[in-house]
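Lab meeting notes turned into a lecture example. A postdoc, R.K., suggested we walk through two folding results consecutively so the class can see how the record format repeats. The first protein's sequence and structure tokens come next.
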Amino acid sequence: MSKSLFRRIGGFAAIATLVALHAPPALGVVYGTDDRMDVYEYQSRATEWAWRALQSNVALVSAAGISCSGGTCVMVAAPTLGQYYDLCPDERFVSQPTHAFCSGSLVDHDLVLTAGHCVTDQDDCDRTAFVFGYRMLDAATPVTSFPEDDVFRCGRIVVRAEDGPIDFAVVKLDRSASPGHRPLPIRREDAVELDGRVAGLMLIGHPSGIPLKIGEGPMAIGASGLSGGGVRDAQPGWFQSNLDAFTHDLDTFGGSSGSAVVSVDERGDLRFVEGVLVRGSTDWIWDPGGSCYRRNVCEDETGCFGAWEEITRATVFAPAVPCACGDGRCDPTEDEFACPADCLGDLDGDGVEESQDNCPGLPNPGQDDGDGDRAGDPCDCEPTDPVLWETPGEARHVRFTRDDASGESAVGWFPPQDEGSTALYYDVLRSDVPFDFLGPAVCVESDDGADRVARDGDPPAGAAYYYLVRAQNDCPAGEGPLGSRSDGSVRVGVPCPPSAATGR
């Protein structure tokens, strides 16, 4: 059955169960301004590293805190950030939930990098779920429901260390996360403070257990690693960082432990995982005037002497991680036969290897990208629009839900793996004939917005309704596919009229 097709029989209902939550630990500080941002604020592919962050990041969650049934996993209700830490109401992110206790990143198709103190032994690892996609959809909507394909369990701990600033673990998942998720490339030689191509450091993780945040910190690189305050107290196996003289920084909190610290070049392109965040200064300080806690903010080096974040170098744990096919780099142990995704060469003849090409398959020698969305102009459906680049893929994991309290039934789904835009809308088709979505089909919703829920009446007793969901965006050919039948043939469906609300 296609992932976009859902069958619903009269009288059927789906039920999710809530269980207990693992509490997050404490770690971190804000340097200068709080530069943490939600992924949606970066307009998806506005920069490569934001897109790769979403693809590779995992939240470490208590396995008892997530329930899976019928292909969908649901996190339990959790206290908000403000409730958990008794924060002042004007603090950032106070209404966001605190589900994660640590962070991690995919570094091979089935390997996750995190901090050693996040998985103390095999029993601890067995009690942990590794969840992709825990993020905010917008300012008010956290993602707490996931396709089961994005929730993993611990297979075994491959390697682990916890000795002061040398604190890391590589965990083998219970199955491969590819091709749905791409691993991040790891620095295997040299050092970040000596790499002249590095323009900044980014932090990817879940501060205080809240949905995914990205923190950025431009830095100046010098032989000592001290220019601009970027890398401090550089040691063979670890380094400290508070970055850029406290103006842009790696703002960290409890739950950030295990976060990947990645480097980017001056264009915003990802370079390497430079290390894993281990520990740092105090998160929250008491405000006696407000009778609540506030962020520990270091306005300058004088006012917060000794503040730091410790990061275990990637070169320490790199030997435990094989060169990852699919990380976008053709490593010495790979070739075009063993890893065509990374080592295809220059098939379009534009002088740029396909693994590094912003428009693979079509010549783009200058890597022109006028709107900065990381889709080269020849491949971009709207080269002047940074939030639109290609026709969307197939909507995923269509499912039926029922609210027993209200008696309402609904069809829900997850967005395509390849969204092609930050502004998707959807058609929902219904038929009482599973193999025909033309003659007997009707449009339950047309050009619906980003809520990814369609309400529909129950089928008659003993009858069945079948659903398809079609993702769309504003590319000239903006209708995504409806999936395929079991025999491999492409599904076709009735066109839906333009929405009166949108005029599409």
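The second example is placed directly after the first for contrast:
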Amino acid sequence: MDNKEYLNAERAASWREALRKSKPNKDRINISRTEMNELTPDYRITCNEEVNQGLTREQALIEASRCLDCPDPLCITGCPVGINIPKFIKNIERGEILEAAKTLKETSALPAVCGRVCPQEKQCESKCFYLQKLKKQPVAIGYLERFAADYERESGQISTPEIPSRNGIKIAVVGSGPAGLSFAGDMIKKGYSVTVFEALHEIGGVLKYGIPEFRLPNRIVDVEIDSLRKMGVEFITDCIIGKTLSYEDLHEMGFKGIFVASGAGLPRFMNIPGENLIGVMSSNEYLTRVNLMHAAEPDAETPVFHGRRVAVIGGGNTAMDSVRTARRLGAERAIIVYRRSEDEMPARTEEVKHAKQEGIEFLTLHNPIEYIGDEKGHVTKMRLQKMELGEPDESGRRSPVAIPGAIEEIDIDEVIVSIGVSPNPLIPHTVKGLNISKWGTIVVDQESMKSDLPDLYAGGDIVRGGATVILAMGDGRRAAAWLTLAGGAGRRPPAAMDAQLSLSH
């Protein structure tokens, strides 16, 4: 059965036909998109509670009824992990929420995570019929995904996918971020024995150290990791592949295949005067210390500095996470400094909205050129070059151009640099035979995620250099679909192996 046939067969189920007939499409399209319930800005900047509060059951059923159950569901093509979106949404509409959660788990190892942090507006929702043809707001796919996952967790009836008997083949995963977890979930479902090696003391990778709890609570991540444990995935922490254990050690331990998902945690700086001043740090350090090491707590042994005038350099999601964290730590003035305009910002629309609601200032078309310190070596001022937009660069965003002589100076006492990250260099530098790009990423076949080494696959930021959670998960799923160990070579997965995944690529 090919992909089209599979989806048509699912859509032809009697219960879905009955749902389509229960409400005319003209009535469905007149329903307004549901708004997410949120904590008020004045309250949420005083605590670390999750901002988005989720949908009620009534809201979810109404929003699900907007879905037209299209015969050609383009929303699936926009999902990097190939979730059968119409099926899970229609299960919500008929009140079978637990079935909706099971549908999500057929393809996604982290539905509650993705429902919170995925840029749906750029992916599945961007392909929605409402937006493409009707010029209306798309179905709130992300909100519904979160609702289904949260409903299952809170019901206490958490389902575990059926796991076949073990085939005796051991697979190693390097890194417990979204790519590694997604890969592990798919491989365990195929009967492999899977061990995930994590360098830090907690499982979750960037989901734990990089994303604040007001956007993604750790308890949510822990539940989804626990589901993988129940499926049989083994986790080993405090183990650095390339140092604690080598590539050769993994072979000696009996691992026949390796998936590298070691991420991109090496911060980038601008190399401008004053970057070594006290109070200037990377977003990686800042968020890791706050999120993972609890450095913002009163009794912290190595407390993080609480700046009163904080500037965050950058315009991505990590920059938004950093500046909103600073606001919660007491910053009286918290500023986003970005060299392009707001329209070019890569951050999710929702994150920008929330930041503005929380009193964050946006200093766009400005670029730092120097940090100035006091006699004790602590940063006190920042010199900014005003910019204007020129022609588009390779990414399609208009390039910033300096306005001659347009320089201004502002007072600050903390700078958080969030201009991107470079791949973790440890695996590329310690595993011989890998093809490494000029950016330090592992070069892989884009279809199979296979490296130049016959048993080593890679995905996520170690390949992409910095991307979203869901794109990393898609890499993990693709590698799992291709990884076979017959002769140590990857072969094309059969069409029936994973219809949704194939459709989404």
